[in-house]
Amino acid sequence: MGDQGLTLENVEIRNGQNTLISINTHIAPGEVLTIMGPSGVGKSTLLSYVIGNLPPGFDAKGRIVLDGHDITHLPTNKRRVGILFQDDLLFPHMSVGENLSFGLHADIKGRAVRRMHIEAALTEINLEGFANRDPETLSGGQKARVALMRMLLSNPCALLLDEAFARLDTKLRGQVRNLVFEYARKRDLPTLMVTHDQADADAAGGECIHLLEFGKPN
Ligand SMILES: Nc1ncnc2c1ncn2[C@@H]1O[C@H](COP(=O)(O)OP(=O)(O)OP(=O)(O)O)[C@@H](O)[C@H]1O
User: Fold this and answer.
1) Keyword annotations for this protein (predicted)?
2) In this structure, which of 23, 52, 191, 213 has its CB flanked by the most CB atoms within 10 Å?
3) Ligand 1, atom 3: nearest CA belongs to which residue?
């Protein structure tokens, strides 16, 4: 068994001739690494490399190692990396329970067993009895909690946050952020957060890397 946590080993992402990002770092279980920097510097592209979904036109070098396993060449669905985006909308044509079921790991089989997991998950986020609700009838905070839980139900071993709180108003932002960090700590998930908001970085409390225009950390 290798080191626990998420390692980006000499990762370099290029867009044609330009080096966009160059990073070499390790995030221990339960810790948050924040990445900040100007728009277009390549923050989201880095996260897409970590989940195995680099857009066409980019090249990347370097290894991604999760809990001692080299996941660099694994398909996205085998990486055990969860991601939350700012536009993490719930599927509107599905109930809250069906949305959660979408996240629930495929290894969990049987209708009754899956329903039990979903009920437990709803209780955990204080939304007991919400399984049949239409997501459109939920408040912003409730939707954010369901989106978080949908992602956690896939049992990720690392967490990525791509401006995940950007659309929430200040008060809600703080609450949802605290909840996400609480889960990350509780489940010992190494967390890589991209944000423009210093308050997110402050709340995370861990290391913060500021990327400059050409992707070089200062
Ligand atoms: N799918 C794509 N195809 C081609 N170029 C892309 C694609 N996605 C992003 N880019 C370009 O790659 C560069 C990095 O984009 P990226 O979204 O990673 O930046 P970012 O730092 O996350 O920016 P922001 O803070 O605005 O979200 C930008 O110049 C962008 O225009």
Assistant:
1) ATP-binding, Nucleotide-binding, Transport
2) 191
3) 55
Q: Is the ipTM value over 0.95, yes or no? A: no
Q: Compute the distance between CA of residue 180 and CA of residue 149 in angstroms, rounded to an integer.
A: 10
- The predicted-structure confidence for 132-162, as pLDDT tens digits, reads as follows 999 999 998 899 999 999 999 999 999 999 9
What are the tens digits of pLDDT across the range 191-206?
Answer: 999 999 999 999 999 9
Domains of the chain and CATH, by start: 6-90+141-210 (3.40.50.300)
Residues counted in the chain: 218
143: closest CA among 89, 195, 107, 185?
A: 89
Q: Among 18, 45, 195, name the best residue to mutate to test ligand 1's pocket (greatest count of ligand atoms within 8 A of Cβ).
A: 45
Residue type, 68: G
